[in-house]
């Protein structure tokens, strides 16, 4: 790891996968005409992006609770029932 301008940067990383997972990854990469390393990089990026999004959403939800922006159990049930009634394909 290196640190530059207050930012921590990974200069290299090694990840050990079980042989069966390595085989699956290789088959998937071959089927996509890609490289296994590229697939792993894309998967890690999606995971990190999702986790960042999820944590932002949780923080926003907690902030809404602190501001008193909440529904009672009955209000949530009423909204859900209305949604399902208006769009039966969702039930």
Question: What would you note in describing this structure?
Answer:
With 91 residues, this protein is mainly α. The chain has helices at residues 19-32, 36-66, 73-86; strands at 2-4, 7-9. The protein has a domain at 36-86. The chain starts with a strand and ends in a 5-residue tail after the last helix.
Low-confidence stretches: none
Strand order of the largest sheet: 1-2
Query: On the 0-100 scale, what is the average pLDDT?
Result: 89
Number of helices: 3
**Rg, Å, rounded:** 22 Å
What are the defining features of this structure?
91 residues; two-stranded antiparallel ribbon; 3 helices; mainly alpha
Short précis:
The chain contains three helices and two strands, in the order ββααα.
Write the layout of secondary structure elements.
Layout: E1 2-4, E2 7-9, H1 19-32, H2 36-66, H3 73-86
Antiparallel strand pairs: 1-2
């Amino acid at each position: 790891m290196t640190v530059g301008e207050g930012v921590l940067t990974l200069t290299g990383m090694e990840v050990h996968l079980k042989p069966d997972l390595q085989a699956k990854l290789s088959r998937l990469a071959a089927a996509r005409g890609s490289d296994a390393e590229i697939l792993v990089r894309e998967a890690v990026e999606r995971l990190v992006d999702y986790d960042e999004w999820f944590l932002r959403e949780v923080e926003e939800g907690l902030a809404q609770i602190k501001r008193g922006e909440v529904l009672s159990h009955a209000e949530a049930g009423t909204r859900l029932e209305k949604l399902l009634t208006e769009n039966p394909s969702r039930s």
